Amino acid sequence: MPQELSDFIRRRIRQDLAQGSAEFASGVITRFPPEPNGYLHIGHAKSICLNFGVAREFGGFTYLRFDDTNPLKESDEYVAAIKHDVAWLGFDWGEHLTYASDYFPQLYQFAIELVRSGKAYVCSLSSEEIRAGRGTLTQPGEDSPYRDRSVEENLQLFEQMRAGEFADGEHVLRARIDMASANINMRDPVIYRIRHAEHQRTAGQWVIYPMYDFTHCICDALEGITHSLCTLEFEDHRPLYDWVLENINVNFHPPQIEFSRLGLEYTVMSKRLLNQLVADGVVAGWDDPRMPTIAGLRRRGVTAAAIREFCRRIGVTKQDNVVEMGLLDFCIRQDLQAAAPRGMSVIDPLKVTITNYEGPAEAMTAPWHPDDASFGTREYSFGPNLFIEREDFHEAPPPKYKRLIPDGMVRLRGGYIIRCDEVIKDDAGEVCELRCSYEPASRSGSDTSGLKPKGVVHWLNADTAVAATIRLYTNLFSDAVPDLADLTAALNPLSVERHQGFVEPAIDASQAQRFQFERLGYFCKDSEEAGVYNRTVSLRDSWKPQQTPKK
């Protein structure tokens, strides 16, 4: 049974529940509020696991609420992808699917309320002028020349903004708080702006849209969120969260609690930068297996269970840190070790001819999994024409090399012992074929030959092997912490290797999606392209800086 989780958020929740307040009558209620302007990544997975996890643990539920307040960047494609990712991770929002746009009428009325109470005003400065007037960390901001407009004028202008009578950027609605506040977020922040754009849900009903800082606190209150869990970059926004709720007529005030974001080696977690990689064609879409998106990890063959276990292991803290890629790899291997059937694939084939073999191919069987008989067995065959990995033969072997060499022996995994008798080369001097003999008395499981080769290699019957494209993925960036100022220069030019190889017929015919290829790693069948296998993870850590080949 999994150990009960304990972190500062769960301790806070237990303390709140112990007070027996009526606001917890329905249990702990959380929300996951993604913006539908891109695909979710593994950093979001941490937040998903936390929000849905604590609600589940404490008898409540979680809202999946889309923060669809910027129609310029949002689309139904992203909404569908986010729903799919959350469900795939194993979490169910049930009937609690909402959108910020569901609350546009109420948000507008709350904004009117702030205007009427003199706590919001229409500002006609440009965005550049507003930015310049905010001041710095050491200097206060400057009051807008429109800060003292009358309530009546502000109401009229705001209603005209709502009616679409002004162009984008001509006016904004700002909260009137304190331009000298030590917290820049409190220096009369913009809470509404004009956007003449088609919204994916409300079409053209609205041409003004609320800002996130104004929207999400009100949505939290309207939905009765008991604990509003945010990442640390929102810590400085908490005073504004509280100010909005304290200055409107709403009878619920959730606490905002911040936790550290997930930082992961060799990746970036900015949707803006990930979108740039997609738009620039650096990767083949949001689900490229090199991407840290949930869709990319899924296409690479990573399971939801592995991601959940990774999120459990990294825990929840108040301190930002960068997690080693090796921990994610460990969680992936741990999950696939028990779940993935075994088989053989050759990704860089070298032809082997067995010169002393006669007759039809010999049928063989092997377990799909060495430790779990419930997987059953698979069939393969041995014959005169084989493939081995090119790297499993060496004419001038380095020290401690235990694979095939001229006049040397090696055992074929689950097959026979073979000896290399002759090396054939092409016109360019490259090895193109090995002519070998096999020892009939050396079959695995019934070996009476007395031979003791030092090495074991995997192989395929070349006459029955199924052609396949094998993709070996490694880190997308060369440095553990990429230089965000020059993303292109930070890219790893060796992030994917493509091989035209072969797999066992049983693997090709299997309904299973994930496999361990003997000695090569864990692979999965690509979800989009037939005959393509993506390496999910190697059998040992490989997420290390790659050296660019010398010219």
| N-to-C span | 55 Å
What count of helical segments does DSSP give?
A: 14
Number of strands: 27
Main sheet record? 7 strands, mixed
Question: Order of strands side by side in the largest beta sheet?
Answer: 12-25-26-27-23-24-13
Multimeric state of these chains? Answer: single chain
| Shape call | elongated
CATH top level label of the largest domain: Alpha Beta
Overall tally of structural domains: 3
Give the name of the CATH superfamily of the largest domain.
HUPs
Query: Structural class, judged by helices and strands?
Result: alpha/beta
Helix fraction?
Answer: 25-40%
- In angstroms, what is the radius of gyration? 31 Å
**Average pLDDT rating:** 94
CATH topological fold name of the largest domain: Rossmann fold
CATH architecture of the largest domain: 3-Layer(aba) Sandwich
Q: Concise description?
A:
With 551 residues, the chain is of the alpha/beta class. The protein has 14 helices and 27 strands.
From the structure above, extract its key features.
551 residues; alpha/beta; Rossmann fold; Glutamyl-tRNA Synthetase, domain 2; 3 domains; seven-stranded mixed beta sheet; 14 helices; 27 strands; 26% helix; disordered C terminus
